[in-house]
Amino acid sequence: VTATELVEASLKRMDATEADVNAFVNRNDEAALKQAQALDAAGIKEDQLLAGIPLAVKDNILTQGLTTTASSKMLEHFTPVFDATVVEKLNQAGAINVGKTNLDEFAMGSSTETSYFGTTKNPWDLTRVPGGSSGGSAAAVAAGDVLGALGTDTGGSIRMPSAFNGVVGMKPTYGRVSRWGVIAFGSSFDQVGWITRTVKDNAILMSAISGQDDHDMTSSHQAVPDFAAGLDEASVKGLRIAVPKEYVSDAIDEDVREVIEAGLKHLESLGAIVDEVSLPHTKYGVPVYYILASSEASSNLQRFDGIRYGFRADDVKNLEDVYVKTRSEGFGEEVKRRIMLGTFSLSAGFYDAYFNKAAKVRRLIAQDFEKVFEDHDVIIGATGVSTAFKIGEDIDDPKKMYYNDILTVTANLAGVPAMSIPAGFSKKNGMPVGMQLIGKKYDEQTLYNTAYVFE
Ligand code: GLN
């Protein structure tokens, strides 16, 4: 099979599904085909591990010459002049970017409903959300457009959509993957990772984008394993699994819990040892995350001032007016809510009461994990408190929307790797259920090994 045939198949599938699903903000048909033809003509070089493979890229990751919008009016016509490091690595490996996927505006949301370009629909049931914020990436994989799509995860944005779409999503350890060229949301949380059909594909692709990068001082020098070569199902025998009681509590829908419990039984039957533990600060995860991530966002989003990038409002009288009008018109409601929340938490009078206190509780949440990992290899529970909800159901109630993230934000607060894998289907509505696996820092391998058992 040629690269051209692969890309054509992917584009054809997009032709068939996009009218319903709306997973892409921007398709890259022409350039992708050209790249594939060039690859076929030149022949594949030995180091091009991903030669000719059609993949998709979340639209908050910079792609040279191809608009990168973060699904915001603010960046509707913004064309980057360089590639993100992860994109550069994919290009070098011969992968082909067939399009930019939809997301919640600036990756703020859990349903892809805050996108300026319209909601993405869940391919399993078009009346339901695909989750967010990487909803376009997960839906593109679930719809069969591509076998892998890049996502970003600040508080669950890879894992939650993966769970809702019955696909595999990995948020690696903070520092594993360069953030250079990724539109910043919460810089101490953001990580790039993959949403794929299979665990093995995810492992292959993760090794391809990981590693230290001079452009990102938080990227780690830790050696990058060949995760796919290391896949080892047998290692589940004797694996010490911790199940936090907070992750299987009755705050989680029964149809979800049933599937997770069955998954744990399966692991036990293969020789894993399952213990109940507690992560007592889990209940503070949502408020702490939303204070800290919004604070970082309010600072990161300062740069969208009508001067440097993208959108600028018309009809302005002076510089102040440029700022106010551009930001009022260019940002959507949820983004403005975060900027206000963040600015408030960081303001002189409230810094100690909010930002500082949240930063302290963040440490306690990280310590919860450290303690459990003293004598366990992996933490397992549900990814979401429910299966994919209906479009429109939570969008007018920000607090309800935020609480959907209760099981995912803590891994970002602690910087540990976490993944979601398809574990079965809900008896209530037939939708996919995601199981979350959380690991020690830089131990993505154990997560991949455990996940591989379910493949
Ligand atoms: N849903 C969370 C939020 O709205 C997480 C988003 C993300 O991980 N980018 O902030």
UniProtKB/TrEMBL annotation:
As recorded in UniProt, its EC number(s) are 6.3.5.7
Residues in Amidase domain copies:
5-447
Q: Which reaction does it catalyse?
A: L-glutamyl-tRNA(Gln) + L-glutamine + ATP + H2O = L-glutaminyl-tRNA(Gln) + L-glutamate + ADP + phosphate + H(+)
Nucleotide-binding among keywords: yes
List the record's Gene Ontology CC terms alphabetically.
glutamyl-tRNA(Gln) amidotransferase complex
Q: Which Gene3D superfamilies match?
A: Amidase signature (AS) domain
| Superkingdom of the organism of origin | Bacteria
Q: Name one GO biological process term.
A: translation
- HAMAP family associated with the record: GatA
* Main function: Allows the formation of correctly charged Gln-tRNA(Gln) through the transamidation of misacylated Glu-tRNA(Gln) in organisms which lack glutaminyl-tRNA synthetase. The reaction takes place in the presence of glutamine and ATP through an activated gamma-phospho-Glu-tRNA(Gln).
What's the protein here called?
Glutamyl-tRNA(Gln) amidotransferase subunit A
